[in-house]
């Protein structure tokens, strides 16, 4: 994402009943109606019709308040990738980005699942990379706990496996050539032969390939990573067409401090889109945002590492317009989905559209289109076309 | 006269159900016809799932292979390949269907129990209680080359491991108390504290320490399918499965298989009708018997072309046989036994090549068959195919319903995405007229539509630790 003329986009996190742990107390449905398809459909359609460009789906460990024994908030969550897949056929323009862990998951499965998500959404899929630092996630699958310094490596390795597997079928590998009886052109399928590093006692692994599904519709799904997860070197690794991360999510303690963080992230990953993270509580239903927040916090305090906006729709509109002067996108985490999304839809997004700061919603376009990214050629196709195979380069393939 | 008695107090339901198996790999799917659609695009899946639902099918079934098939050391080129992830596709189909069951084939060797159980639970909740898991095992290191664990499991251990895995999954699905979730936002807590019981499993290959994140679904937990046919596989199914995706569609075989399964099921302490049987099958239908036969020849020619016929033999000979005429006799050279390289990922294992070649040559010579005719006969699913007019086949199927040989058929369409059209438009009404097929869905969940009882809750709270016994 580089052109100054490009317009900003807005993402909405659709987890649970909202980002506040006590959000379920203000939801407009019974708690038992949260974990089903009807709810997923309703929220993602509301986000799309409000004009959001991207919906994200959180996964993994829940907030401490809910997962601790005796916690009083929501302890359950449907698998994020499946929620996104469920939303695929019922939406037409909104981009669907599930969070998927890279540490305690199988890179081969993730790659196949994400490629499949791209097919069921018509090329509107992305991947929000997570690296779990929760010992409970390790215990669930019987793996040794990966400490903080191993997380970046696990994440970078898993991304690299997916990127290679997505390229392992060249675009025209399915030939259906009746004359020769061949469905596939085997020369356009490639082993990926990934070998992870083995460092400090961690278990290394390898992935052979090729993928079991053809190349995703977008060629490569856009990959989003939280700032700070990957090093500067890791961020820009990969091929020229497919660097490790296409977008970086930036947090700051307050909205005012976001600008500095955005500039820093831009310097660390010049090729990546920068997305600012913002918690949002709005005046609603005749109640002030501060009053609503106090009421929610009285049930369970909201611990969040993101900047928080608490105020009126008009103030938020101004704030977002100002953030979008430097960031490419903003991801909103509404305190209570059923309440704040309505305010966003009726007041904030229309005002931002009037100001002309938002990219248009375009049915049929891909996530790469939204980010201004070309559809890249497969790295394996490029290697064949530009450099005749020598013994050594063939071995590297 | 076929002996139709089953024994052990088994009472036929007199009814049939249909399922659809979207294959996505192997030679059964015709890709050379202009009507053959995409194997990957969502529209193919949507079209066929919605057609099946119009025909009141009980289940939509997806397979899985975790490594791309290979032939003589390279990816296999001749058949359809490249299928989407089963659960991701089924989650998408859940939003555009409302009654049909969604069956995902998933491997117990290269998945983690907590992760797989959680994802199946998600699918079950998203679909309103329509998810099922077809439990498969593998042991080969060749598939393991795509996974962190690599090839770690001995062939002999695969069912022991699968069963420990399935028991752990059941405990995860059953771990939330019913009614644990608050009925209104005004409650003190979202869920009754302590209502999700932790699951602990310690085995030879896996340790699971997990607090399940999801409640039970409208059908309590996903339905279990199983397809293994060895004595071990059958006993596993008799203990664990709700439905067997069997390989015995011929009436005599189906009756024998039913007797065997009923006996094993009773021995396992379950009821005679607790395990449903739905054989894999192929239907080639037309308005008249003659047209159906012509259609069958056309389909067979497209399924097994000259290239497939030679490639089929190459798997067992272990070398290239391109020099042999597909319309001539079987190769007179002997297999390169030590180099035998089966088309991997297609389920052929452990064949003794030389012995097999001698036997096949004798058989082909005896019957006067060319390579192509021989391979076509071997792979034609001769036993699994129902060819005939709509009324003819409906009469044949009624006999299965009457005798209780099967509970239904899992149909592999040979054409995507229109391969169910004639079945739904013509065969289903014939079956309904004969009173052997539903005229509406019995309920909203897969369990209800298959006539399965509510499962007994698996004990979740007590750690089931048996090192050395379970793997």
Write up what this structure looks like.
The complex is a heterodimer of chains A (397) and B (471). By secondary structure, chain A is α/β, with parallel strands linked by helices. Helix content of chain A is 36%, strand content 15%. Chain A has 14 helices and 13 strands. In chain A, the strands form three sheets. Chain A has an eight-stranded parallel barrel with strand order 1-2-3-4-9-10-11-13, surrounded by six helices. In chain A, α7 links the parallel β9 and β10. Chain A is globular, with a radius of gyration of 22 Å. The two termini of chain A are 29 Å apart. Chain B is of the alpha/beta class. Chain B has 14 helices and 15 strands. In chain B, strands 11-10-9-6-5-2-1-14-12-13 form a ten-stranded parallel sheet, sandwiched between helices. Chain B has a three-stranded mixed sheet with strand order 8-7-15, with helices on one face. In chain B, strands 3-4 form a two-stranded antiparallel ribbon. In chain B, α1 links the parallel β1 and β2. The longest helix of chain B is centred in the middle third of the chain and has 17 residues. Chain B starts with 16 loop residues before the first strand and ends in a 6-residue tail after the last strand. Classes of the chains: A alpha/beta (397), B alpha/beta (471). Chains A and B meet through α1, α3, α4, α5 and β6 of A and β4, α2, α3, β8 and α9 of B.
